[in-house]
Amino acid sequence: MESLKILVVDDSPIIVRKLILLLEELGHDVIHTAATGAEAIVAYKQCKPDMITMDITMPDMDGIQATRLIMQQHPHAKIIMITSHGQEKMVLEALKAGARGYVLKPFQKDKVQEVIQKACSRVVIKEKLQTEIEQRTADRQERP
Fold it and tell me: Which 3 state secondary structure label does DSSP give 30?
């Protein structure tokens, strides 16, 4: 996979640092960071990244609204959501807004790589992702 120019959007400086290190380890170039959805919209226009990693819950404007607005102006943008367990409904909203995939925190290198590859190589079938999220939620609820 070729090196991507990535915009990292998250309000947690710790998560931003971890993502930058992980993405650079995977051979990508983090060209900009943003701490809010509003900053992400401006940053996307300025630096035109190949991909965005977008946190869902942030102050000012959440990642879902930011994704929706970016996709309205740039329908070919590639956005993957970074989220926590328990935010499955929000992930579904983000996918409906145009996100191409998601990674659960705490993220792992191989999972991030897999989601990036899928987001770059195919069209996302939202119904399939919704089924996957629902199955993961059900599996988690069945565990003791």
Answer: strand
Any idea which residue has 């990674």 for tokens?
Answer: 103
101: nearest Cα among 74, 134, 123? 123
Q: For 21-40, write each residue's pLDDT tens digit.
A: 999 999 999 999 999 999 99
* Range(s) of the domain holding residue 27: 5-142
The Cα angle at residue 46 between residues 100 and 110, in degrees rounded to 5: 35
CATH code, 68: 3.40.50.2300
> What is the total count of domains within the chain?
1
Give the span between the Cα atoms of 36 and 33, in whole angstroms.
Answer: 10
**Residue 83 — φ and ψ, nearest 5°?**
-145, 170
Q: Is the pTM of this model over 0.85?
A: no
